[in-house]
Amino acid sequence: MTDTRRRVKVYTLNEDRQWDDRGTGHVSSGYVERLKGMSLLVRAESDGSLLLESKINPNTAYQKQQEDEKFLTDLFAQLTDEATDEEKRQELVNFLKEFCAFSQTLQPQNRDAFFKTLSNMGILPALEVILGMDDTQVRSAATDIFSYLVEYNPSMVREFVMQEAQQNDDVSKKLTEQKITSKDILLINLIIEHMICDTDPELGGAVQLMGLLRTLVDPENMLATANKTEKTEFLGFFYKHCMHVLTAPLLANTTEDKPSKDDFQTAQLLALVLELLTFCVEHHTYHIKNYIINKDILRRVLVLMASKHAFLALCALRFKRKIIGLKDEFYNRYIMKSFLFEPVVKAFLNNGSRYNLMNSAIIEMFEFIRVEDIKSLTAHVIENYWKALEDVDYVQTFKGLKLRFEQQRERQDNPKLDSMRSILRNHRYRRDARTLEDEEEMWFNTDEDDMEDGEAVVSPSDKTKNDDDIMDPISKFMERKKLKESEEKEVLLKTNLSGRQSPSFKLSLSSGTKTNLTSQSSTTNLPGSPGSPGSPGSPGSPGSVPKSTSQTAAITTKGGLVGLVDYPDDDEDDDEDEDKEDTLPLSKKAKFDS
Questions:
Q1: Residue 552 above 60 pLDDT?
Q2: How does DSSP classify residue 122?
């Protein structure tokens, strides 16, 4: 006998077509001499007695499929028949529960075939009938069966409930035409009602059902095809037919400024509802937004901040924190219009100086607004609640909010200042590498002179302007930048083309006198050198172009004339530079000397 034993429950159909329980045992397969072939054997787990011995025939698979279908049809018929004895129904539903539990041991392919068979035979309509019964044990077992189906294939359950809703809509339309009213009872609404009406003090069943509902409304396990999207269809169905059932206990308990019922079990139930609603806020952006704003759900939820149960008040605060975390201006305008920070501020002040979870959670929410710089909420909080919060100094959150608010007002009152900051930021952080290299070289060329002269570089156009015509900060900044770039280009050209001749700098002095400082070589001018009277570039040489008549000066030291920039002596480079300069056209030499 091979070691393929599995734990099973054995039932036999009696003459009255009722199922008799033979017991629980382990099934295995093996060759049986008496039956002359391979057989299935089931031995009781208690004493090892033989509960079943059946030969496997070649056509058993086909016969077994037919028998399974007939068996399941009879099973569901007895479960849903009102004439079935309560004890018998309880026994049958427990059998179906164990049947589903046994399927978890099957291979994935076999498990898929098992649940597809159950679905085709009508297990979901049968569960809907069973869940509507008054027997709590039967309903509990039906809930377990439903959980197996949801965990296996939530799309199968969603498809069933949407088809059911469509059929009910069609029936309701016909009844309305006949002036007959009908109450729609949907499977998913039965699940919600059982969650709400759970009598267990610990709400164990409600917690299980809430988890199933969250699986059903989770877009992460919804399918999308080319022709339709399950998410769009199912969420549209859920918010139309089911959301009002889910929020009914919340709306019924928050009609005043504090919860109508504040006992422990009610608080636990509302905490479960809020947990599911918070999940919807995070995953159902469009549908839940419309529902919250149109039904004023957030204001009702914040009533629970006044609950004596801290866990319920924290659930309400977490719901609002999730909404603020989306940074959605539709939500923000709704919050500001309804002044929905007031319950939070009241709870914060009532909590006093106690350092607890409520205190930390509220401060964290305001800190998020400050750090993320949500301008609309920052202005709303400071304008309406600053007087109540200004004395809170053990954290810098509220003072930081006040500072943010003042900065916003400053930018609104002086938009040019904000533009200036933007330009400076772009200039500081977005310069390319070439510009950076040019500026560094310019700094090395001009830094020493600036320190010696002690005079700032200003635009030449500033000399002719009156004090009343001073340019605004942005224009001044751009003018200085252009001047700096032009001087830099001129210096680079003179440096590259003048050989040993030190570069000339044009500096516009702050006194308004335009002075051209021309540096000269510290050595004696030799005939033919760039600075000698006989050189082509000198003022007295034939063919030279007269220089500007503006005042010229040379920087002197105690040792005599020195160049502004010292270049290393290299005879070969000097000869090459002098040869190049001698061959330059007179017009270019005049341009470079000017």
A1: no
A2: T
